[in-house]
Backbone:
């Protein structure tokens, strides 16, 4: 299998909002060593290769750098150091229905959401009834989105996302809010995708889902790559009580 | 073929069918969201200029306006175009922040948010100018065939708004003070644009240069000539105006695309 995502010593640093203030710039200019800005690193020298068709889980505690890594691969952040290459079209799904608008109706949102993620309008039209039926929202087509619960929104977003076409899917806890029935439905979709040629990189805290769908796992901790390899082995290391703070 | 990850958003190209479909959906969404929580909605695009018209007509019709034919319509045209420019650029400036989840979390050309916002507002300009024409006709202005060239003025105004909006929205991501700077600038522009006075009212010298450099004063001149005088301004003047604004639009798209890869970090 050929590589589809390559990261070479990628690091990412952020400067705080307050450091944009004019006074901070003046202080930096006047400081003798010229190093007035304090940068905090969200990722440290990450190097890894993901192959075409890989299903990779991305695990780690909150603040470990999972979202930053996904956003860097998606091209939404630029790496401070290092280089990232991607072969193919990338699609990032963050949260439930990113891009949907509360004040628009369910059907208007479906079209907006679809075209944002690269679907043709005609295809959305063609799949419309099936999408609404899968999401169990047939009676809500003309309801305003804000009247839907977060679980219903998740069903709606995922129902359409099943039809997104891309080479690399980056998912960031995208559909974690659904109920038991929804979980069963989306796990079935992923089970059917398991042997497909699409590449998936999924940030998740659901280790059972990672075991079920992902053949490989990346473990991040405080922005550092702790381990990358076969899912069962990495998850055992990750779940072990001794890893409390391996960086320290 | 491998490409650098930060170029991913550019995989959707200008003039691509999907690009236009996304532009359409964003424009429609922005249009539906506009004035949604107000009672009068779209009517404000004409009510606001009419309120200002009442005030300005009372203040200026005696001395400044007494040498201008159909002064009320002259004022109304100026106020509709100025207000549209002001509100449209202001809304577009904030659109990247207003639709932060899309700007920061979705992969697509972000200039579409700005262009979509400008197009959503543009519908109001067309409607408000049509109402202007009706009011002009009812108040005794003789409309003749040159008025059919008015869509050209709309196109010029859209081009102007697009490049200004692209520059402002891009800069606003990095410099939030721009809100206050732009508010002050728009107040100055109200006086530096011949809305309630004729260009000849100003003395020759620096003030005339300011008018010449102000694209809005040219736009007002174009539309007033068409509606009030029934004349088309010289073709060279229109072509030059459009060419300059088109070049600035091209430059602003280049600037926007250069800054786009770091938007998500600053929002």
Residues:
């Amino acid at each position: 299998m050929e590589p589809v995502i390559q990261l070479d010593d990628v690091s990412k640093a952020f400067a705080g909002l307050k450091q944009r203030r004019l006074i901070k710039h003046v202080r930096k200019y006047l400081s003798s060593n010229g190093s007035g800005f304090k940068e905090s690193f969200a990722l440290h020298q990450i190097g890894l290769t993901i192959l075409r068709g890989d299903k990779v889980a991305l695990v780690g505690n909150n603040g470990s750098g999972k979202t930053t890594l996904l956003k860097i691969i998606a091209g939404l952040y630029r790496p401070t150091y290092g280089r990232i290459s991607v072969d193919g079209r990338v699609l990032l799904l963050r949260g439930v229905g990113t891009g949907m608008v509360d004040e628009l109706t369910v059907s208007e949102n479906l079209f907006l959401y679809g075209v944002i993620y690269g679907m043709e309008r005609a295809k959305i039209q063609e799949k419309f009834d099936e999408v609404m039926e899968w999401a169990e929202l047939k009676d809500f087509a003309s309801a305003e989105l804000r009247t839907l619960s977060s679980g219903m929104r998740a069903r709606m977003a995922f129902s359409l996302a099943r039809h997104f076409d891309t080479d690399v899917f980056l998912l960031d806890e995208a559909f974690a809010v659904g109920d038991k029935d929804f979980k069963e439905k989306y796990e079935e979709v992923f089970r059917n995708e398991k042997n497909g040629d699409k590449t998936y990189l999924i940030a998740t805290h659901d280790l059972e889902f990672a075991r079920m769908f992902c053949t490989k796992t990346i473990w991040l901790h405080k922005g550092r790559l702790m381990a990358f390899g076969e899912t069962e082995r990495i998850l055992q290391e990750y779940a072990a009580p001794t890893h409390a703070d391996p960086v320290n | 073929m491998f490409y650098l990850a930060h170029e991913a958003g550019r995989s959707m190209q200008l003039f691509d069918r999907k690009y236009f479909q996304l532009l359409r959906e964003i424009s429609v969404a922005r249009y539906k969201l506009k004035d949604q929580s107000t009672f009068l909605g779209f009517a404000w695009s004409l009510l606001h200029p009419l309120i200002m018209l009442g005030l300005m007509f009372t203040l200026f019709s005696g001395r400044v306006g007494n040498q201008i034919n159909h002064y009320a319509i002259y004022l109304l045209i100026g106020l509709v175009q100025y207000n549209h420019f002001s509100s449209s650029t202001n809304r577009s400036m904030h659109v990247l922040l207003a639709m932060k989840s899309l700007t920061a979390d979705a992969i697509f050309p972000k200039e579409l948010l700005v262009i979509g916002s400008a197009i959503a507002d543009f519908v109001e300009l067309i409607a408000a100018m049509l109402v202007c024409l009706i009011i002009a006709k009812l108040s005794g202005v003789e409309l003749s065939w040159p008025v059919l060239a008015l869509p050209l003025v709309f196109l010029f105004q859209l081009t102007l708004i697009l490049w200004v909006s692209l520059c402002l929205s891009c800069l606003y991501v990095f410099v939030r003070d721009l809100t206050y700077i732009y508010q002050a600038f728009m107040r100055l522009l109200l006086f530096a644009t011949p809305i309630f006075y004729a260009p000849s009212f100003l003395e020759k010298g620096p003030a005339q240069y300011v008018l010449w450099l102000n694209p809005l004063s040219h736009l007002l001149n174009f539309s007033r000539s068409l509606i009030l005088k029934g004349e088309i301004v010289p073709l060279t003047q229109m072509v030059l105006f459009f060419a300059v604004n088109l070049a600035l639009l091209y430059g602003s798209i280049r600037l926007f695309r250069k800054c786009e890869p770091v938007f998500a970090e600053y929002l």
